[in-house]
Design goal:
mainly alpha; 55% helix; globular
């Protein structure tokens, strides 16, 4: 799927997608909630585009929106790219009970993370590296 900004999704796509992500974090009051709401705000403001999970299937068949991929894409849009950011995604997946097979497949694809790091360092020139802890405190 092509990456799209908030305004490029239909109202139905947004409603279904946001409802799905909110259902993932119900009854969880964690750092994940804070990251998700920061990401949602930036997305609604038009600060980044989203295309679902890269190279792999999404958690749900009815929407491309899921917390782990959404937060990961948001962090990448801010220049936070690398294996430490992948670890954040995997921790989100673990805490939100994603299927183990989905986590394994995504871990395999992280062998290509170095390409994304190079892209952000030399092409986009927005590389920040590891996650700033201030984002989740």
């Amino acid at each position: 799927m092509e990456s799209k900004y908030y305004k490029e999704f239909t109202e139905e796509e947004i409603k279904v997608g946001f409802d799905s992500m909110h259902s993932e974090i119900l009854e969880k009051d964690t750092w994940i909630n804070k990251l998700l709401y920061l990401a949602l705000n930036d997305f609604i403001e038009g600060n980044f585009s989203y295309d679902g999970a890269t190279f792999v299937k999404e958690r749900y068949s009815h929407t491309i929106f899921e917390v782990a991929a959404f937060v990961h894409d948001w962090l990448n849009s801010l220049g936070y790219v690398g294996y430490s950011i992948d670890v954040v995604m995997f921790e989100i997946m673990k805490q939100l009970n994603y299927e183990k097979s989905l986590i394994r497949v995504r871990k395999i694809w992280t062998i290509l993370t170095f390409i994304n790091v190079l892209r952000h360092k030399y092409y986009l020139k927005d590389y920040k590296g590891k996650l700033a802890i201030q984002l989740i405190l």
